[in-house]
Amino acid sequence: MRFKEVLGNGELKSRLINMVDSGRTGHSLMLVERDGYGALPLAMALIQYMMCRDRTLGEDSCGKCPCCRKVSGMVHPDLHFAFPVNVSSKSGTGSKPLSASFLQEWRQLYADNPYFTEADLYTATGIADKVGVISVAEAKEILDALSLKSYEGGNKYMVVWLPERMNAEASNRLLKIVEEPMPDTYFIFITHAPERVISTIRSRSQIIRLYPVPQDELVPMLESKRGIPAKEALAYSRISGGSPGLALAMLGEGSAAGTYLPVLTGIMDNVLGADLPALLESNDAVLALGRERQKEFCRYAEDFLRKAMLSARGLTSIADVLPRETEIVDRYSKLLPSGFYEKAFKAFENARAAVEANVNAKMVFCNLVNNLFVLYNTKI
Questions:
Q1: Do residues 213 and 8 make contact, with C-beta atoms less than 8 angstroms apart?
Q2: What pLDDT, on the 0 to 100 scale, is given for residue 95?
Q3: Which is nearest to 83 in space by CA: 51, 62, 64, 109?
Q4: DSSP, res 176
Q5: Helices 326-335 and 256-272, interaxial angle, to 10°?
Q6: Quick one: pLDDT at residue 255?
Q7: How far apart are the C-alpha atoms of 114 and 84, rounded to whole Å?
């Protein structure tokens, strides 16, 4: 990945280039982004520029030398990665899976879409129903990898994607090497929640914040990648908040709207039809999602209800309704009573919290749909 291939953040790219050229690159950088902004491709462009043997000073890496090709393919022996993982069918027989178990999926995901989201990673690695973690075993692997001599005689690089997923023991194990780094070793942390990264690591890292990708760059990319008209691409660009990863995810077959809208519609239609037996049956679709996706479903439902409420109040321009949701949002906004929304939000939020606390999912969602039935049919 070359800097010129990374979307947005033009001023930041220039700053990073100047930092390398002037020899002021810190040994621990922390790139702070919203999910899908592109911190990983930016980190790869930075590493490629630092390792390139024929770079144009002040501009970019050559993209052709052996180092550039290896970095671009994520196969350079002095470039290492750590990211959240968990046990899955793809992790082998070990009870403590490591990032190394999923490097093939990691590289393929990056090759297909460098702006992938956390949810995309979990889907690719087969842990969509679990929480990814960076364990103390992973921290040991990081220390072992960085203790070895550089394979090609240059610097060594460790990219830690989502350090907020490190447990306390793993964070403390890495602390010493971050505090007292070897002169030829660079850490690049990429985080969506810097406040959840252990403060001693955060304070020893140079914080670099990414900005949303401007529409004049994001819209053409969406048109090209997804083959959609400019007007639709503009809508997704705006709704995603300038995040290429989130915009692409919204347009994908496995998007939140594509996955959860049919489930939510099935539930809400039975609520509106006052058909309690059918409502309880439609609840089975939620139970089949698995724990992590059940939480995502609740978040999506809350956001959908927000859109319907704003539309009912004539505020469609700020509702950020997706094109595929427009017809259904418009229908429900005309049917749901104004007092329904606030209590329905709370019902979904309570359900999400209960799932997070490992309460039996069947009990949680039977209670949820029963509450929705009562809220609507008592005409609040």
A1: yes
A2: 67
A3: 109
A4: H
A5: 30
A6: 74
A7: 17
Q: How many Å apart are CA 196 and CA 25, to the nearest integer?
A: 24
- Helices (H), ranges, 155-255: 168-179, 199-202, 215-226, 230-239, 244-251
Q: Give, to the nearest 10 degrees, the angle between helix 361-377 and helix 291-312.
A: 20
Tokens standing for residue 17: 């280039």
pLDDT, the chain, mean: 91
In contact, 302 and 348? CB cutoff 8 Å: yes
Rg (alpha carbons) of the chain, rounded to whole number: 23
Q: Which residue has the tokens 């990073």?
A: 16
C-beta of residue 64 within 8 angstroms of C-beta of residue 275: no
| pLDDT at residue number 93 | 56
Residues 6+ apart with CB under 8 A from 256: 249, 250, 296, 300
Encoded tokens for 267: 């539930």
Burial (Cβ within 10 Å: 0-12, 13-18, ≥19) of residue 89: exposed
The reported pLDDT for the residue numbered 94 is: 60
- Flag residues of the chain having pLDDT under 70: 91-95, 128-129, 253-254, 379-380
Return d(Cα 86, Cα 89) in angstroms, integer. 10
Residue with the two structure tokens 């190394």: 100
pTM for the model:
0.80
Distance CA 48, CA 195 (A): 29
Query: DSSP code of 317?
Result: G
The span from the CA of 255 to the CA of 247, in Å, is 10
In this structure, what are the phi and psi dihedrals at residue 30, rounded to the nearest 5 degrees? -125, 110
E strand segments, the chain: 28-32, 79-82, 156-161, 185-191, 206-209
Other Cβ atoms closer than 10 A to 363: 10
Of 286, 262, 260, 279, which Cα lies nearest the Cα of 362? 286
* Three-class SS state of 13: helix
Return the pLDDT at 54: 94
